[in-house]
Amino acid sequence: MNPSECIDRLIAGLKDWRGKTFAGIRKSILAADRAIIEEWKWMGSPVWSRDGMIAVANAHKGKVKLTFAHGAQLPDPDKLFNAGLEGNARRAIDFFESDKINARALKNLVRAAVHFNQTQLKKNKKQKAPAGTHANLHKSKRHEAIASSR
């Protein structure tokens, strides 16, 4: 089975309110950005990624938990995060039986996570440039300018 099929099966197996909540969370995440991919990790956890992990979800006995990998670095103007607030990296949203999903706010949070991942990816690429690349680029442009002026 591919990861999306595994998530379908997980949701179908949740016969109570958690299945509907899980499906709503998934729908909002996937609607936030068409390039998000679904993964199945850690022996049974749905993960959504784009240029790095965005979030992982799990159904617990009395809640559905959506944990954002870099939640501590994300803006949360709608105050969705209600769990894991003391951590330096992750933040989570615990959904309980009577909770409604604020799809607009969740999509915005997912988009912020994608933006964070893309920003980190760009930073990492710049840091991993081979030593001397920047200096050699300037040197070659200088030589081109000198040669063309002759």
Describe this structure in words.
- The chain is an alpha+beta fold.
- It has a single domain (3-149), classed as Aspartate Aminotransferase, domain 1 (Alpha-Beta Complex), CATH 3.90.1150.200.
- 46% of the residues lie in helices and 18% in strands.
- It contains 4 helices and 5 strands.
- The protein has helices at 3-13, 17-32, 103-127, 133-149; strands spanning 37-41, 45-49, 53-59, 64-68, 91-95.
- β1 (37-41) and β2 (45-49) form a beta hairpin.
- α1 runs antiparallel to α2 and α2 packs across α3.
- The protein is globular, with a radius of gyration of 21 Å.
Mean pLDDT over the residues: 89
Percent of residues in helical segments? 40-55%
Strand content: 15-25%
Distance from N terminus to C terminus (CA atoms, Å) equals 66 Å
Structural class: alpha+beta
Please indicate the count of domains. 1
Count of alpha and pi helical runs: 4
What is the H/E order? HHEEEEEHH
Architecture, CATH level 2? Alpha-Beta Complex
**Widest sheet, order of strands:** 1-2-3-4-5
Q: Uncertain segments of ≥5 residues (pLDDT<50)? A: 134-150
Rg, Cα atoms, Å? 21 Å
Tally of strands: 5
State the CATH class. Alpha Beta
Shape: globular
Main beta sheet: strand number and arrangement?
A: 5 strands, antiparallel
CATH structural fold name: Aspartate Aminotransferase, domain 1
